[in-house]
Structures are given as structure tokens and as C-alpha cells.
Write a structure and sequence with these properties.
By secondary structure, the protein is α+β, with helices and mostly antiparallel strands. It has five helices and ten strands; from the N terminus they run ββββαβαββαββααβ. It starts with a strand and ends with a strand.
């Protein structure tokens, strides 16, 4: 629930924070009114603050941020190995692929990928293929995200921006069974 905001001098308070002090003219006692009506608030010198309508640029920037957040979410950044959801950042993929290649060059037949308590034992060649698959998937997702950003930047009305669906077009997630 959005509360009304009021301004008085350099004070900014929400409606439920305002307490009105009044002095009874008959006995001179000071009284507090908690949860005053809007009429009482305005009579006490408060001015209701009205948020300006968002501009098209504001809406566009909000939608672009939603796209960036979606791009970083598990909705995009996930692949499955044996039914378990995983993700490796670009930096992690580079380091792990380099490791797998060194282990392959050294003639190792098995390597381990340990991720969030899960241990995958696989041949270095298979590990390199896995990293290549994930990297290709990530590249495709990047392209889709950039296309969505470009599309939103080309929109010109509030309705178009609000109704734009940036969750479409992403490639099917990788699902590897061991």
C-alpha cells in the first residue's frame, strides 16, 4: 500500500507519521491527534506531495533494468547436469576450461568439477565439451538480451514499453544426463 506523502517546510512525512498538535482555546491544554484526517493535515500547513508521471525515458530505463535483471537471473543463467541446476560465470568457465585442457594435455583420464557441494567426475574432453556448450548457450543468451534492449530502445509509447515481453527468444536450457 502506497502512503500519501506530505511536505511542511523541510519536513517530509507519510500520512501515518504525522501527529497534529492543537491547543484547546478553553483550557490551554495541548492535544495530539494521531492519524489525523487529510483535512486536518492540510489545515495544519502540510502540502500533499504528488509524484510526477513517469516519462517515456523513465519507463524505458525501468524496462531496460528489468531486462538486465532477468538476464542475470536463474531464468536465463542455468544449465542442468543430472537434473541439478548449475551456472558458471564467464570467468569460471575460462578458468575451468583451461584446467581441463591442462589435465587433458597431462594425460589425465578423469577430472573433477566440484560445484556447490556437487562433484562431477568426467573425462577432461567431456569437461571441455561441457564448458563449450555452456559458453555457446551464454553467447546466445547475450545476443537475445541485447536484441531485447535494442527493441525497447526503439519503442515510443508507454503501452508498448509496458507490454514488451523480454522473456521470449532465449535458447532452450542445456540438460545433460550422466
Amino acid at each position: 500500500m502506497i502512503m500519501d506523502l506530505y511536505i511542511k517546510g523541510d519536513q517530509r512525512k507519510y500520512r501515518d507519521q504525522i501527529v497534529i498538535l492543537t491547543i484547546d482555546p478553553e483550557d490551554g491544554e495541548e492535544y495530539q491527534t494521531i492519524n489525523p484526517t487529510e483535512e486536518m493535515i492540510l489545515a495544519d500547513g502540510w502540502i500533499k506531495y504528488v509524484l510526477p508521471e513517469p516519462t517515456i525515458e523513465d519507463l524505458r530505463n525501468l524496462k531496460l533494468q528489468e531486462i538486465k535483471d532477468y538476464d542475470k537471473s536463474p531464468e536465463v543463467n542455468t544449465f542442468y547436469v543430472g537434473g541439478i541446476a548449475l551456472w558458471l560465470s564467464r570467468e569460471e568457465r575460462i578458468v575451468i576450461k583451461d584446467r581441463f585442457q591442462r589435465e587433458k594435455d597431462a594425460g589425465k583420464e578423469k577430472t573433477k568439477l566440484i560445484y556447490q557441494g556437487l562433484t562431477l567426475e568426467l573425462a577432461p574432453d567431456m569437461g571441455i565439451q561441457l564448458i563449450n556448450l555452456v559458453s555457446a548457450y551464454a553467447d546466445e543468451c547475450f545476443d537475445v538480451t541485447e536484441a531485447h534492449k535494442s527493441s525497447v530502445n526503439a519503442l515510443s509509447t508507454e503501452e508498448e514499453i509496458n507490454n514488451y515481453d523480454y522473456t521470449t527468444g532465449y535458447p532452450e536450457k542445456i540438460n545433460i544426463t550422466l
